[in-house]
Amino acid sequence: MIVSTPGRFLELYGKGNLVVKKIKHLVLDECDRLMDMGFWPQLRRMQETMPQKKQLLLFSATFPQTVRNIADNFMLFPEIIEITPQATPAVTVDHCLYEVPNFRTKLELLVYHLQHPDASRVMVFVKTREKASQVNAYLQRLELGKILLLNANKSQSARTAALESFRAGEAKILVTTDISARGIDVEDVSHVINLSVPSHHEDYVHRIGRTGRAGKSGIAITMADISEIDQLNRIEELIRMKVRRENIPANVIIHPTSREERQEQLRELDRQRRRNDPTFKGAFHEKKFKKTLTSRPSKKSRK
After folding, report:
1. Which among 63, 246, 256, 295 has most CB atoms closer than 10 A?
2. Cβ contacts of 17 within 8 Å, gap of 6 or more
3. Are residues 140 and 219 in the same domain?
């Protein structure tokens, strides 16, 4: 029996639709993702409902501490089998990075690559559902052919239909969030384009794993603004390789960065620095404090 989530398992169990005492094997797939999504309490309750004597198999593309916690709590003397070292990208994928000043320029560069003759089947990854919808609407206006949108706002039936259409070759472009980064097998994806750097560094490995499959070659293109470069550096540490830097082609329009977007980039840099250093108060705070010190008149001058 296949159950989509631990929560669904517990729902069926609570209704008396599952007979758990005869379970002899339990398989947990995408364990790292289950933990990222906060399923630890449900996993513990699942374990409590089942017989202690059973075979438990955990599958995960990465093996962070959260997955080790599952193994330590649920298994006795677990045996670890690695096909390749964790977070190892396929050797058949060619990686490159463009440092791009803003989102409008990213869109220009995206269209440039979509129009390349070798871009036969392309997955475009963005960070949020809102951005996915914006990118989809922008590309639809350019009449580049049929374009599919897949994100968490879509119903399960709509997601399945979009994926089947992409798999069948009815559309060559799929715009999506990280909902499509794992567990999706589509043949002959020529390009994966990361319009944004993923927040979870392991998701980079999952995203680019959609291309270069079954021994075929693929291209992974990442676009990063100033607020994403540090994340990309951490991804390079994770995958143990340097992503090749490329210059923006001369015929791609480079738009000026708006004041609002620039401020948002700086705020994101502040958020990253706070995560790494809890004592950091932020560049805006430092700037304001410095301005106050320099502009405040002295007591003598006020007299």
Report:
1. 63
2. none
3. yes
Residues 6 or more apart whose Cβ sits within 8 Å of residue 40: 66, 69
Q: Can you tell me the distance from the alpha carbon of 205 to that of 87, in angstroms, rounded to the nearest whole number?
A: 6
pLDDT per residue as tens digits for the range 126-174: 998 899 999 999 999 998 889 999 877 777 788 888 888 998 889 999 9
> Residues 6 or more apart from 269 whose CB is under 8 A from it?
226, 227, 230, 283
Q: Following DSSP, what letter does each residue of 39-53 receive, concatenated? A: -HHHHHHHHHHS-SS
Helix (H) or strand (E) holding 94: strand 93-99
Please state, in angstroms and rounded to a whole number, the distance separating the CA atoms of residues 192 and 189.
7
Residues 144 and 241 in one domain: yes
Q: Which of 197, 194, 267 is nearest to 232 (CA)?
A: 197
CA angle 161/166/169 to nearest 5° reads 125
Q: Are residues 162 and 193 in the same domain?
A: yes
Measure the CA–CA gap between 165 and 210, rounded to whole angstroms.
16
Average pLDDT rounded to a whole number, residues 59-74 = 76
Q: Which of 195, 198, 218, 229 is nearest to 111 (CA)?
A: 195
Q: Which residues, 6 or more positions from 199, have their beta carbon under 8 angstroms from its beta carbon? A: 127, 231
Position 225 scores a pLDDT of 96
pLDDT single digits (tens) 99-128: 999 999 999 999 999 999 999 999 999 998
Pair 145, 221 in one domain: yes
Query: Do residue 37 and residue 125 come from a single domain?
Result: no
Last residue of some domain: 248, 266, 285? 248
pLDDT score of 206 more than 50? yes
Sequence-ordered strand ranges (E) for 215-270: 218-224, 244-246
Comparing CA positions, the residue from 126, 137, 97, 256 lying closest to residue 203 is: 126
